[in-house]
Amino acid sequence: MTLRLGDIAPDFEQASSDGNIRFHDWLGNSWGVLFSHPADFTPVCTTELGLTAKLKDEFARRNVKVIALSVDPVASHLAWIEDINDTQGTTVNFPILADADRKVSELYDLIHPNASSTHTVRSVFVIDPAKKIRLTLTYPASTGRNFNELLRVIDSLQLTEYHSVATPANWQQGDEVVIVPSLQDEDLIRQKFPKGYRALRPYLRLTPQPG
């Protein structure tokens, strides 16, 4: 199954390190990050899960719930969590799905035979409160994920969801944003963007970040 942006994230019920999880019910009205790992006790993923735990407040501030996945069983996850807590100086505070039957991996197309016929690739899905997939990223096994970039994209998605803007290259919180080309009514533009804007081209109009 190939998932594209705008698709509804497949629902499932699966065991996890925090007990059974019915995914859509667990998400509720929150944004979600689902990220997969090839196996337990892998070095790069150990650092990633430790960093995720340390970013708990950053995710909570954005109304984001985080859930990880590995093809190993719950007992293995619980032992791995002890290692993560010890080596990364943190406490894992989110569930890790136990996908030994590959049910979730198949729903989310996480088994890529050219990479591995048994282990999942390292993918990330950002899911909005309507359960739609808003971002997909897939990393090679050798490269740790950039969580600053993940938070940046979530900030952009949430800003652009509620305002008529897009974010330019390398945008960070507080930078100028782009007024979407479809918004042409000048009265409405003045209402939405009281600080004004500067037009580099008719299609490229920059304005201070709203909100």
From TrEMBL:
Domain Thioredoxin: 3-159
GO cellular component term, pick one: cytosol
An example molecular function term from Gene Ontology annotations: thioredoxin peroxidase activity
Keyword Isomerase listed: no
Active site: 45
EC number of the protein: 1.11.1.26
The organism's place on the tree of life at top rank: Bacteria
Catalytic activity: a hydroperoxide + NADH + H(+) = an alcohol + NAD(+) + H2O
GO biological process: cell redox homeostasis; cellular response to stress; hydrogen peroxide catabolic process; response to oxidative stress
Pfam family, one: AhpC-TSA
Family: Belongs to the peroxiredoxin family. AhpC/Prx1 subfamily. Belongs to the peroxiredoxin family. Prx6 subfamily.
Subunit structure: Homodimer; disulfide-linked, upon oxidation. 5 homodimers assemble to form a ring-like decamer.
Protein name: Alkyl hydroperoxide reductase C
